[in-house]
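Hello Y.,

Per our agreement to keep a running log of every chain we model this quarter, I'm adding this entry. I've kept the format consistent with earlier entries: sequence first, then predicted structure.
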Amino acid sequence: MVTQVVGAARKAAASRPLWVKLSPLVTDIGVIAKAAEEAGADALTVANTYPAMALDPATGRSRLGCPTGGLSGPAIRPITLRLVWIAAKAVAIPIIGLGGIEKVDDVLEYLSVGAAAVQVGTASFTRPGTVEQLAHRLLEQVGKANYRNLNDLRAVLRRKID
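Predicted structure for the entry above:
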């Protein structure tokens, strides 16, 4: 099904970059990532929120406003890191990792497992300046480690995990 959907999107947007967001709720994200790449995806984003539920035990009511919702933020980072790592081993196209990124170490974790870039969501909602702060601190980290650029640091980090 991924092949059909991505293939149709590729045909419709032949000259435009096609980034495909992969769901975390699949049996083998490596297989899905490969299918998206083969069908014409230029990059992949991994992943999305995870179905969750939170109740107030005193009232029995949902803390989300609806019975269920999407879990995001720091709680999902370890799960999503694993998915990015699996997908990165399966494909040659860039992967954008997202989920639970609040500090530079979180960014470095994603780069270590193969992400080419990251997306910051929840932290941006609660602290709008987060992305700018992360970018500044990441550049400082690259300089402290005596690397020429972020790609050099990323290559070293990636070799350590593989």
